[in-house]
Amino acid sequence: MRDCFQVYGLTCGHAANPLAIEPEAVSFGWKARHTLPGRLQKSYRIQVFHNSGKNSPVWDSGVVLSRASYGIPYQGPELLEGGDYQWTVTVEDDQGALAQSRPAFFSIGITRWEGSWLAGANYMAGDTAPLFRKEFSAPGDLVSAKLYLAAVGYAEVTLNGRRVSGRVLEPGWTDFRKTVLYSAYDIFELLRAGENAVGVMMGSGWYSNGNLCYDTASMGGQFLLQLVMVRTNGERITVFSGPHQGWLTTSKGPVRRESVYHGEAYDARMEKPGWDQPGYLPEKKDGWEEPLWAEPPEGRLRPQVMEPIRVRRTLDPVEIYQTGPDEYVFDFGQNLAGWARLKVQGQRGQKIELKFAENVYPDGSIDVTTTRNAQAQDEYILKGRGVEQFEPRFTYHGFRYVRLRGYPGIPGPEALKACLVCSDVAPRGQFSCGSEILNRIHQAVLWTELSNLHSIPTDCPQRDERLGWLNDMTVRAEEAVYNFDMSAFYEKWTDDILDGQGPVTGALPDVAPFFRLGRRPADPVSSSLLVVPWLVYLHTGDKKILAKCYDGMKRWEAYLERVSDQDIVRFSYFGDWAGPVTASDPESGASGSYSAVTPPDFISTWAYYLNCVLLESIARVLGKGEDVSSYHAMRRRILSRFNQKFFHADENQYAAGSQASNVCALLLGMVPSGKSDQVLANLVTDIKDRQGMHLTTGNQCTKYVMDVLTLYGHIDVAFALASQTSYPSWGYMLKNGGTTIWERWERASTGLVTECCSQSHPMNASIDAWFYKYLLGIQPDPSAPGFENILIRPRVPQNLSSASGTLETVRGPVAACWAQSGGQLSLNIEIPFNSTGDVTLETSGFCRIVHNSRIVWQKKDCFPMSQQAITLRVLPGKHSFVCERDI
């Protein structure tokens, strides 16, 4: 029995085996697979052990009768600072079979740092990347060793000449005045008995990145390091940063210039072989001196639990062509974020330039319009010793094309590789269908989303911006949670939002982390602090993020209520941002990004209502009965005022009747009784007849058009919009060379949009959630979140032959695959262990429905004609459905 029942996929605080986690964040999750169908979890038992060698558990949950398998909080004695623990879970199924997991691990972070912050001595931010080194001794009887590093800026750590991990651009970006992240590394295998050396190379990162400099008087990045070794007898030995601790620094390292926006210059002639190894003799001519004792940043130190940034993938060029006497352009065939890896052999002192761009002009030369004020250029000076390889450490670019100058000879494809660099979030979803254009849109969405995950969800990766805009994330977040495991990433980013919330007013910022760019208060459409935690809760069942953000949610809604004019919120910066130029105000800012067809106070007031709807649901989940009643009453009050102000009963439309206006009201059920059909008819007429099957919506409401059309029975119209290839549409982007989703519906070369024309902008990637939710039909059940129960209701367009995909849930993979042919529709699904599924199938046009060879519905006189669908509850395992059409 054990062989067919396995527990796997253990997580602690959304992460697998975290090396540093706060005690209050310790919670447990697991998955199980069962070869026998129909099995559910009956109980679980968690045991936590200290890695001290003692056999008795620190905490034993006992046998808990529950189907819960994610977000189970630790409820034992206080966990030791810096302590290492292992844990197991034993699961019993509803037939009495038992399965025990293999041990998983977690370590508690540290709050007591023995050292102090260090900075370079002769260093100007962005000019050079200073080197720091220290030698120390290690005994030969170690049982564990960890290195903790906090930094403002980026830091690369080496031990005995080897990097301690494959992480890059570390640690993640925060508002350093509120929060500073530290990383933990297991360095046990890198240590030697006897002499060792630790090296740190610092980059300015986001701490002193030009117009985002947190301290104009700062000396660039600075760091705090603590290395903890534990001997077999339990003795702890620490090595730490601080003055008079044997640390040395120099500003004469090989990185001569570095900036997130502008790129990196590396002079290989200035490399110092062995500088981070024991026995190296620092020479005064190389600038080695004691580092400066630096003022600590204001932010609270917290461990980084979210996924690190890594090089995720490399691409070879698809074309190389010459554009000048000493100039070549590499086309990698795909827009991405990261850098180019250079491989070269040449004379000492020869300089090579790499310039990055998303587009090229008709003559093949690179077009840097979309990088705006970011220079996006790396430089490498050869040392002249055999084959040399270079990739930057403290910058990244958004690009498809690289212009190469100064390369000795004619470069071949081995000269440059493109590296996709982003947060290492695990993939969750897979989708494909019978439409080539939809498959291409899906792939473009994946590249766009990954290219904009860099410890925060950026809006773009190429220009001098790259910020976590809340208005974008309000609609983008659902696409991301279907495609990737965003739980830990979103936990961190909601902390960034809370850090930026006004302490007096409760107003949210436009961007998180919040500093200099963006405004506070945010545009009212910025509902991310509510939408993102709600999505995490639906997809994991973990209430922790709701509880953490709840007060902040309430304060934002209270702010909007206070500044409203009798529940009409009149201020707006963005509204339904960046719609087609044909529906935008050409005289407005940001290249005419403001809607000319949807009033800003309409969108702002609608978002105020959306918040109230979410708060009522969240309060119910958290058991806050008084708040449930309060927000229910508030919602009814706002709705009344909203319809009084914006609904035109004689015309059956909202505001001026734009697609966005009518869609918003339909989505949240705001239309007065008996009027929904007419408002819907106006929406469909506008899309099909007035706009010729095109959208007039911007970043907020495009997502909702697809949802509303589907929910109200117009899947064929939604599919026609999704597969459209003429302007404006997603297909138009791809037809015009796009491999990622654009910021605007127009090409970057269109004069009107040159200020805001990123070619990799995930806000319009929101369509991808529609692929999973409606074409595949996979959704979490709000009444049984975390996929305890799975809602499966595929919508089948007439002109789409098939769709298939999987979603890796917190309980295991759920799969759905359908195809229509020869007068019937076949659907195959798979439900993971410990989940149930509600499968809803349309009955219209069918004469019978068969489930696993058994008729579960057929057209009879006893069935009312109004029955449009049937719903069947299914257990874990594989299920086959065949819907046979009328002949």
UniProtKB/TrEMBL annotation:
<dbReference type="InterPro" id="IPR012341">
    <property type="entry name" value="6hp_glycosidase-like_sf"/>
</dbReference>
<dbReference type="Pfam" id="PF08531">
    <property type="entry name" value="Bac_rhamnosid_N"/>
</dbReference>
<dbReference type="GO" id="GO:0030596">
    <property type="term" value="F:alpha-L-rhamnosidase activity"/>
</dbReference>
<protein>
    <recommendedName>
        <fullName>alpha-L-rhamnosidase</fullName>
        <ecNumber>3.2.1.40</ecNumber>
    </recommendedName>
</protein>
<keyword id="KW-0378">Hydrolase</keyword>
<feature type="domain" description="Alpha-L-rhamnosidase six-hairpin glycosidase">
    <location>
        <begin position="429"/>
        <end position="774"/>
    </location>
</feature>
<dbReference type="InterPro" id="IPR035398">
    <property type="entry name" value="Bac_rhamnosid_C"/>
</dbReference>
<dbReference type="Pfam" id="PF25788">
    <property type="entry name" value="Ig_Rha78A_N"/>
</dbReference>
<dbReference type="InterPro" id="IPR013783">
    <property type="entry name" value="Ig-like_fold"/>
</dbReference>
<feature type="domain" description="Bacterial alpha-L-rhamnosidase N-terminal">
    <location>
        <begin position="142"/>
        <end position="312"/>
    </location>
</feature>
<feature type="domain" description="Alpha-L-rhamnosidase concanavalin-like">
    <location>
        <begin position="322"/>
        <end position="421"/>
    </location>
</feature>
<dbReference type="Pfam" id="PF17389">
    <property type="entry name" value="Bac_rhamnosid6H"/>
</dbReference>
<dbReference type="InterPro" id="IPR008928">
    <property type="entry name" value="6-hairpin_glycosidase_sf"/>
</dbReference>
<dbReference type="InterPro" id="IPR013737">
    <property type="entry name" value="Bac_rhamnosid_N"/>
</dbReference>
<dbReference type="InterPro" id="IPR016007">
    <property type="entry name" value="Alpha_rhamnosid"/>
</dbReference>
<dbReference type="Pfam" id="PF05592">
    <property type="entry name" value="Bac_rhamnosid"/>
</dbReference>
<dbReference type="InterPro" id="IPR008902">
    <property type="entry name" value="Rhamnosid_concanavalin"/>
</dbReference>
<dbReference type="Pfam" id="PF17390">
    <property type="entry name" value="Bac_rhamnosid_C"/>
</dbReference>
<dbReference type="InterPro" id="IPR035396">
    <property type="entry name" value="Bac_rhamnosid6H"/>
</dbReference>
<feature type="domain" description="Alpha-L-rhamnosidase C-terminal">
    <location>
        <begin position="777"/>
        <end position="844"/>
    </location>
</feature>
<dbReference type="GO" id="GO:0005975">
    <property type="term" value="P:carbohydrate metabolic process"/>
</dbReference>
